[in-house]
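User: Run a structure prediction on this.
Assistant: Running it now.
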Amino acid sequence: MASVARDKALVVMHLNGGNDCLDTVVPYTNGLYYDFRPTIKIAPEDVLPINDTLGFHPSMGPIKSLWDAGHVAVVNGIGYPHPDRSHFRSLDIWHTAEPERIGREGWLGRAIRDLDPKGDNVLTGVNFGRGLPRALGCQGVPVASVGNLDTYGLFPELQETQARQMALDTFAKMYGNAAGQDVVKGFLGQTASYALQGADRLRTAPAHYTSTVTYANNAIATNLKSMAQVLCADLGTRICYTQHASFDTHAGELATHAKLWQEVSGAVGSFMEDMRQHGRADEVVLLIFSEFGRRIRDNGSGTDHGSGGVAFVIGDAVHGGLYGAYPSLRLAEQLEGDLHFNNDFRCTYTTLLEQWLGLEAAPIVNGQFESFTYLTPAAA
C-alpha cells in the first residue's frame, strides 16, 4: 500500500520491573558472562546472533527479523549518573528526565504540550493500559488512558452524557467540602469533558480498521493492536504509551523472561507488520526501555536489581545497528557488581524528540544532550 504524508507517531513501551539486558542482548562469546551466570544464562547455540559477539534472546525471533531488515537500533549501556536500584525512583527519573531531583512533569506530557500547545486534541497522547503513567503527566495536558478500546469510556455503562455528568457531580460532592467543592468539581468537570470527548472519538477507531495481521492473545499484543486501530483512524494521535510486566525476575527467571520476550517480540512484530500493511510503517517509531538492568551475577534462580540497561528503537525509518558500547563485564570495570551505563537515556529522548517529532528537546529533557544517528532529522 502506498504511503501518504501524515504526522509521525512515537510509541513508547516500558518493560516494567527491570529487564535483564545481559540475557536480552547476550555476549555469547564472552567467557565472563558464563562465569558470572552459572545458572541464568543463554547457551551460545540458543542465541539469535546479530554479530560475532552479541545475539538476541531466543524468544526474540520477530525482533531479530526486524533487525535483519535493518530496522532495529540497539542502544547498549543506557542509563543515568548515580543509578538508583529502586523501581519507584529509577522509573520516576526516566519518566520526568530529572535524575537529580524530583520532577513535576513527565517528559512525554511536555512533548504533547509542545505538539498541541492549545490542547485542541485530547487524543494527541494516549496511554494504552490502566492509570496514567508519570511520563504522560503534565499540568493542563489532557491524555486519554485506554484499558480496553472496545469498552473504553468514562462510566461506559451510562450511555447518556447527562447521566454521566450526574455521576461526576456526585463525585464532586463526595470529595469536595463546601470551601473546596468548586475546585474539585471544576477539576473533575474538566477531566470528564476530556474523557467524554476522547471516549466518543476513540470508540470510532475500530470501525476504520481492517487487517489480516493476527495478534496473539495477551495483554501487550492487545494494547499494540489497539494502537494500530487508533493510528489508522487518523485521530491526530502522536504519542502512544504502554507497558508490560513483570520483568522483576528475582526468581524463576529463565521461564519468565522467555515468556515475556516471546509476548513482547511477537506483539512488536505483528504491530510493525500491521503498520506496513496500512502504509504507515515509515510513520511510526517504537522505543522499548526498562527502568534498569539486573546484576551481573545471578542469584541461582534469577537476578537482582542492577543498572546499565539496553533500549531498542524500532521502525522502518530507523537506521538499524548497535549504538553505545556494550558495558564491560571485567571486575575492575563493574559498578559494585553492576554494568556501568555509558550513555545517558536523555540522549535517546533527545534523538526521538528532535529527529523524529521535530521538537526542541532541551526544555523537555532538562538540558542539552548529544543525539544518536539512528534517525534522519525531522524536516523543519
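The longest helix spans residues 253-277.
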